[in-house]
Amino acid sequence: MKQSIKKMLSVILVTTTLFSCTKQHDDLTTANSEVIQGTWKIESFTESSENSTNDFIGFTFNFAGNGKLAALKNGAATEGAWSTTNTRFTIDLGAKGTSNKLGNLTDEWLIVSKTDTKITLKDDNVARNEVLVFSKN
Prior knowledge:
It contains one helix and nine strands, in the order αβββββββββ. The chain is an alpha+beta fold. An eight-stranded antiparallel β-barrel has the order 1-3-4-5-6-7-8-9. It is globular.
C-alpha cells in the first residue's frame, strides 16, 4: 500500500512540475512577443562581415501579435511569419537567394539584446557571421 501511495505521489509531483514549467515558458514567450509587436526598420544587417543594410532601405516590418509578419516598401507587402522565445527569434520571409533579398532574413536568430526600441540578433550558425539589428519605427 505504501508503495502505491509513493508511486502516485511521484506521478503527481512530476506532472505538476512539467505543467508548471510549460506555463511559465509560455508566459515568457508571450511577454517577448508583446515587446516586439509593432512596426520596425532594419538599422543594420551584416552578412559574413559585409554590410547589406542598404538592401533594406525603405522597408518597414510589421510584427503582428498573431505571428504574421509584413515587410512593406512603396505600398507593396511581402507576407511572412515570426516567432520568439527567451533566446531565439525566428523570421520566415521566403527562401534565401539573390532574387529575394527579404529571404536573407529568413532564419532562426539568437537574441543578443532586446529593448522596447531595439532588437539585436545574430545567426545561430557562427560560421555565417550574420548580425541583424531592428529599431522601432
